[in-house]
């Protein structure tokens, strides 16, 4: 049986519509999930929405809705976006799902049984926007003396009786975890930050609230709902039926990768492993904190009015252009900027003018001059084997890069092979060989079709829809193995191409977004 691979995104707050940061996270996770499937892993991929907490309750109140109504309305935008962006998730989890309540209560009970939960009075600073508690020493002062969290969000003084989790007991075990599993937190910058934070000492964490009721009820403690992050993190267990005796999905635990944004590493790399250790549950293998997407270099915020709608960008420029841009242009793990011009320039340069042009030139030439029939091997030249070796090397580099989450480096390697193919076609000039040396022309075209197929299979995790369209034209599939005797089998069977249709349109900057 194939080895399981479990990947999750953060679950997103549906207190508003999704923005491009949410889209980016889903797209990156989807490319990794597709890549792992292609490598033969038994993948489970989960994304969803995080629906409890004060932020949701307050946003709903301001709109005169119940929190559940708000969650229903907004969660639908997230799941529609996931579908529209071709995100191949196995479950879209909502923390208001019934099985999630049971799972959250089960982990709570396990932590209680360990003796890690106690009732006390909480007094301290809370940021509703971050749904996070902060220590006085972490705060700064904003305009008019307003106290701000390290993320620049306002904090308010909170005092209530709550349950506490003995986080302070886990300082040593956590430091040992970071030491013994150096890849537990990536990238390096995030790891260093977390190690420093934990070395600085951990205070016990308030894990229930009594001032509102939109959350998972604390078992045996009427009036208390769980702190939203306790239930939110538990979604990763809910999604595979961890506490359900009969669940066949349990084989996916421990998760291979929690893909999240850099702002929520503390929750995933400190609180989450501590909860799991307390409940005697195996720890995930890796938490990766990707960077932030900036709008022309600026942080997006509702007050600046520069929050980009990913669906509008996908509608204007195409889903695969957006996917390709984000994965090629943003060094995975660092922040990256986007603009309409940058998307159009990148998609045109790499997809329309390079890969698209390569495929179109080759397939249209075969359709026109050979009546669409793939030619059998002609007279080969060392340049042919050299090109195929370049393509093979690039696909390997892509694979090694994706396996270590160096996503943009993988795409860059792929692109270098596309350039090599375009150089090859220019030098070999099959259009000139048509009259002078048809036998040689056959070999050139055969080499190009092999290269195009392998390159389309390789890049499929990034641009699945376009790659599939292109592969369909030559009757190949993303799951096919690279190289192989595919071409010879196809050509000797007399396979005939339909007249090819362009897969990568040239994009223009659109008025609406300019
Ligand atoms: O944090 N660029 O939800 P969320 C890239 N519910 N990524 C971004 C981004 C940007 N501009 N803005 C946000 C939450 N993100 C919690 C998670 S998980 C158990 C609970 C990322 O809707 C952010 O870092 O605020 C996070 O990974 C995800 O989008 C959801 O953010």
TrEMBL record:
InterPro entries hit by this protein: aa-tRNA-synth_I_CS, Anticodon_Met, Met-tRNA_synth, Met-tRNA_synth_2, Methionyl/Leucyl_tRNA_Synth, MetRS_core, Rossmann-like_a/b/a_fold, tRNAsynth_Ia_anticodon-bd
Subunit structure: Monomer.
Gene Ontology biological process terms, A to Z: methionyl-tRNA aminoacylation
Domain Methionyl-tRNA synthetase anticodon-binding residues, every copy: 374-479
Keyword Zinc: no
Stretches assigned to the Methionyl/Leucyl tRNA synthetase domain: 5-363
Gene it is expressed from: metG
GO molecular function: ATP binding; methionine-tRNA ligase activity
Keyword annotations: Aminoacyl-tRNA synthetase, ATP-binding, Cytoplasm, Ligase, Nucleotide-binding, Protein biosynthesis
Enzyme superclass (EC): ligase
Organism per entry: Sphingomonas tagetis
Entry's localization field: Cytoplasm
Name this polypeptide is given: Methionine--tRNA ligase
Family the entry assigns: Belongs to the class-I aminoacyl-tRNA synthetase family. MetG type 2B subfamily.
Amino acids binding Zn(2+): 151
Positions of short motif 'KMSKS' region: 299-303
Function, in words: Is required not only for elongation of protein synthesis but also for the initiation of all mRNA translation through initiator tRNA(fMet) aminoacylation.
PANTHER family noted in UniProt: METHIONINE--TRNA LIGASE, MITOCHONDRIAL, METHIONYL-TRNA SYNTHETASE
Catalytic activity field: tRNA(Met) + L-methionine + ATP = L-methionyl-tRNA(Met) + AMP + diphosphate
EC number of the protein: 6.1.1.10
A single GO cellular-component term on record: cytoplasm
